[in-house]
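Dear support,

I submitted the protein below through the web form. The confirmation email said the job was done, but the results page showed an empty box. After a refresh the structure appeared. I'm attaching both so you can tell me whether what I see now is the final result or a partial one.
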Amino acid sequence: MANSYPVLNATEHAISFENHGQRLWGMLHLPHGDGPHPAVMLLHGLTGSRIESHRFFVHLSRALAAQGIAALRFDFRGSGDSEGEFQEMTAPGELSDAKAGLDWMVAHPALDSARLGVAGVSLGGMIAAQLAGRNPSLLRAAALLAALADPALFASAAQQTANQSGESPLEALARDGYFLLWGYPLGMGFVQTIFEQQPVEDVKRFRGRVLIVHGTEDPTVPVQHAELYKDALGERATLHKLNSKTHVFDEPPVERQAIDLIVSWFKEMLR
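What the results page shows now:
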């Protein structure tokens, strides 16, 4: 039976904020009762959106709100409903979007600025690691979900695209200024900056606790990425390897297990 995550003791509000002159759209899940509430910001993956694959972020946000934890999920610029074009997306740009979202949360009167967390999946997990490491005074806890730790993985994904299309990414970049990855145009800016990112080094500067959740046979971001984060953080991190051959915990029982782990983690860390 598929998972069911009803809206319990919470309201859901469409929200927006700006970054670099462009508007980003999201959804705030706000628990009932007197605030301010602890809150978690959710960061989606490459080619994803604030809903995420199989509505993972919707389910996670509702599960958090049911336990008294507000959740903000939004579309990075160029993704989902937010302004901007996907071809212009870069990892530093997404980190800037995440910081703008965090600033929005800090200023929101219904949210407790002393009890904030961040969770990200895939590339969004890398951004979460960077955000936590660069803003240690603003975040109490983080969760890295099937998170990219070594940007060189991008080269592997690009090569897979080349094998399917018969044309190398470099050839497409030289001709068009972008190449297609899963139907999305990745531009030169992304290619030029992705290998400069050092999320493992960034997250070492985070003073809070970190939850790491990863599928044992993740075909997109291998589980070795989770181990890189764990090795770097030592006792400050808790690693859970889930028996899954998917990237974003696609099977309903695995999704339920991941969500239960994440909600329990933030309930303890943000109390």
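Response: this is the final, complete result; the empty box was a page-load delay. Residues 10-151+198-269 form a domain with the Rossmann fold fold (CATH 3.40.50.1820).
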